[in-house]
Amino acid sequence: MKRMLKLMARLYPSGWRKRYGAEYEALLEDSEPHARDVADVLWEATKMRLASRTFVRIVLPCALAGALVGVGFSLSRPAMYHSRTLITVDADSRVSLDSGLRELVQGAFPASFLDQIIQRENLYPRERERMPMSEVVSIMRKDIWLRPLQKNDGKPAMAFVVEFYYPDPHVAQRVDAELVSQMVALNVRIRIEQAQANASHVWEVFRVVKTANLPKRPDGWGQAGFGVVGALGGLVAGMIAATALGSREPAVS
Amino acid sequence: MSDPSILVLSSLAGGDKHGYSMMEDIERFAGVRLGPGTLYGAITRLEERGWIAPVACEDRRQPYTITKAGREHLSEQLANLGRVVRAGQRRLENV
User: pTM score, two decimals?
Assistant: First the structure.
């Protein structure tokens, strides 16, 4: 921790370091550092930089460039919408919902089924142009989320949501509904098979409580969020650059 | 009462001290631990304004002393604070 705080002293303007650097290091050697000192030193170093000439010459342009990169990055990525369906499971479950869901994903969504949806809905057109279908199916699997829900006390609820992420909200809704109907159909089929075979355990009944919604807003941080993160990244990079360039402001301003 | 400048001036009003001594003294009399960044931020500003000054010393642990202007400023700030404290106490008693 002391070593890190000493390194962070380099974020201060060079004029400040020349005047106070040695005694500041002596203070760090004498004192017992706390974790929050990292934020404390970073904040003070930022304030010193804001008051120095290097801020206008180096740090501010870097922060602006970072903000532009952040906004550019967000513009280069399509906005993603996710549609969600809420499903409950009969409460007398004797199997973990987690393991049940894993089984379901494997069983309910075979590659051939996802392949059909991709073709019918014309999903991932750019990806299909440049990669084999098996890879496109893998991409689609990453856009399907099955999340077990928890109660307020943190214990698992016998419910889960099925979500599908896609740049078009209407497509996200249609595909999510199709995924759910496939899951429910599989659930019914397996229950019938297990009952006919007099299996010791019959799968729980899935009940769709809320059908796939039409998402109104895209997910994620949006352009403003990426811009702020980019600006912060640029700010830190600018401070490091100013330190590395050894800017020669005359004294502490 | 956590203005780092007032805490540093109050600490130095009791005698010259270097950074670590100030940090310990302030924690003792105010119950506030100033981080190294905050402490040296305050020292920097106070020295710029002429309210504290470094004392000639060979050691890396640079002691500081409060100047006449610093004493006047501290006295003024504490008087203001005292007025606020007294007014607040009076109002609490009248509730």
Answer: 0.50
H helices within A77-196, ranges in order?
97-108, 111-121, 125-130, 133-143, 169-196
Min Cα distance B20 → chain A (Å) is 5
Contact list, A41 vs chain B (CB under 8 Å): 35-37
Q: What residues 49-78 of chain B have any CB closer than 8 A to a CB of chain A?
A: 59-62
C-alpha A187/C-alpha A201 separation (Å) is 13
Report the pLDDT value the prediction gives residue A92, as an integer from 0 to 100.
56
Tokens found for residue A175: 């595909």
Q: With beta carbons less than 8 A apart as the criterion, state whether B35 and A37 touch.
A: yes
Work out the mean pLDDT of chain B and round it to a whole number. Answer: 92
> For chain B, what's the residue count?
95
pLDDT of A250: 44
Burial (0-12, 13-18, 19+ Cβ within 10 Å), A168: middle
Beta strands B64-66 and A206-210, pairing class = unpaired
* Touching B: A residues 35-94, CB under 8 Å: 36-37, 40-45, 47-48
pLDDT at site B78: 94
Q: Report the 3 state secondary structure along A8-70.
A: HHHHCCHHHHHHHHHHHHHHHHHCCCCCHHHHHHHHHHHHHHHCCHHHHHHHHHHHHHHHHHH
Rounded Cα–Cα distance for residues B95 and B69 (Å): 40
Mean pLDDT by 10 residues, chain A (253 residues): 82 87 90 88 84 73 84 79 88 58 72 93 93 94 88 80 92 94 85 78 78 86 77 81 61 43
Provide the residue type at A96 as one letter: S
pLDDT exceeds 80 at position B19 = yes
Residue A220 structure tokens: 């994620």
Distance CA A175, CA A179 (A): 6
